Amino acid sequence: MTSLPGGSDDGGSAPEPRPIVCARCGAQARGPQPTWTCSVEHGTRRYFCDFCSRENLRAIEGRLDSAWW
Fold first, then answer.
1. Which positions ≥6 away from 61 have C-beta within 8 Å?
2. What's the whole-model pTM score?
3. 17-52 residue pLDDT tens
4. Is 5 exposed, middle or buried (0-12, 13-18, 19+ CB in 10 A)?
5. Which of 69, 68, 63, 17 is nearest to 40 (CA)?
6. Kind of pairing, strands 37-41 and 19-21?
7. DSSP string computed for 20-40
8. Cβ atoms within 10 A of the Cβ of 33, count?
């Protein structure tokens, strides 16, 4: 039996996903959510929950920094 290079034989269990926190209100989710927005601002990835995304949709589409809205 062979293994992939650099792989391990840990039974194929995936690591536990890190919780994602909304950068505006602090809501948490277990991993990426399809209704959340991901933004990269000044090289930093920021996530916004669906409520905060809807509330600030015009500012997001206008590419304003989240500090502004």
1. none
2. 0.68
3. 789 999 999 999 998 899 999 999 889 999 999 999
4. exposed
5. 63
6. unpaired
7. EEBTTT--EEES--TTSEEEE
8. 15
